Amino acid sequence: MFGLSNPQRFMAFTGPLTPVLWGLAALLLGVGAWLSFSVPADYQQGDTVRIMFVHVPAAVWGLGAYAALGVSSFFALVFRHALADAAARAAALPGAAFTALALFTGSLWGQPMWGTWWVWDARLTSVLVLFLFYLGYMALRASIDDEQKAGRAAAVLGLVGLINLPIVKFSVDWWNTLHQPASFLTPGSSGLDPVYLAPFLTMLAAYGALFAALWLTAIRTEIRRRRVMTLRARQAQEA
Amino acid sequence: MLDLDMTPYAAFVWPAWGVSALVLAALTARAVVASRKWKRELARLEADPTPEAADTNRPQVARSAIGPKERPQAAQGAVGPKE
């Protein structure tokens, strides 16, 4: 695992893996979409239950991407590892996009079910804070010219934002919220109707494969970009 | 069998799926375009490692990394100090 922290070995290992992940993501998204519109409407929620198949995976991988960003930031800050810094940077945009999708689709689900687009309850607010952490991370990186200083400052912010992840996860247990409590992985809960399990798990896996493909591609691009910058600097020095 | 009749919730279901599809497609397109761009640029620089290959109009990072261009010592000596 730590062998992959060498950029050359990382490029060699992820070279054949990345197209496989893109293909897997495309396949799972296609199958997941088909399954999502094949299952019957819910007896209470009607067809709005189909929003769950894009809302929950986006929310789960929005959180997952931030965990990847935070852990990478830790390694970048403590070990000054360039690849970890690239990994943190690469997770920011897909994570922000997934979180924005979770907020948007959740709002579209909330209006017909709760009668409101938005409510300042603990779950929705903590996910909004997560989105703001993503924006802050990207803005901070972009605002400092020196890439090393930008990476270190953003890594500190990335680490601070990790505090928000358990708040998002447990907000529905710690406070009274309009948002429903966790039902899928909670022992003893009624859980999801078995008829919705196949599309739900397929879409969850599809978003996961897509995030992995986006992340690896972005890390590989960042490695190449830094190599180009180094070569340009060397050539400009020689000129 | 596909059920595409979302009545009466079509105004909520289709935008949720449509915007999700658009955003995921945009993320994919951006990742692929950026990947190809830097792959091509790296291949170009590695194929032609001469200083002329460096595009001095673009690499602001490169210029900031090495600082302002200094005059060669020999040239300064040739001009000599002003009295």
Distance between the termini of chain A: 40 Å
Specify Rg of chain A, calculated over alpha carbons: 20 Å
How many beta strands in the DSSP annotation of chain B? 0
Structural class of chain A: mainly alpha
- When the domains of chain B are counted, the total is 2
Number of strands of chain A: 0
**Low-confidence region ranges of chain B:** 59-83
The rounded distance between the terminal residues' Cα atoms of chain B is: 94 Å
- Principal-axes geometry of chain B comes out as rod-shaped
Q: Biggest sheet of chain A, in brief? A: none
Low-confidence stretches of chain A: none
Written as H for each helix and E for each strand, in order along the chain, the element string of chain A is HHHHHHH
| Residues in helices of chain A, as a percent range | over 70%
Calculate the mean pLDDT score of chain B and round it: 75
Element-by-element helix/strand order of chain B? HHH
Structural class of chain B: mainly alpha
Report the biggest beta sheet of chain B as strand number plus sense, adding barrel if it closes: none
Evaluate the radius of gyration of chain B: 28 Å
Number of helices of chain B: 3
Pfam families (chain B): CcmD
GO cellular component, one term (chain B): plasma membrane
InterPro entries (chain B): Haem_export_protD_CcmD (IPR007078)
Protein name (chain B): Heme exporter protein D
Tell me what you see in this structure.
The complex is a heterodimer of chains A (239) and B (83). Chain A has 239 residues and is an all-alpha fold. Chain A has a domain at 55-176 and 205-239. Helices cover 77% and strands 0% of the residues of chain A. In chain A, helix 3 (82-114) packs antiparallel against helix 7. The model of chain A has no long low-confidence stretch (mean pLDDT 93). Chain B is mainly α. Chain B folds into two domains: 19-49; 55-83, no CATH class. Classes of the chains: A mainly alpha (239), B mainly alpha (83). Chains A and B meet through helix 1, helix 2, helix 3 and helix 7 of A and helix 1 and helix 2 of B.
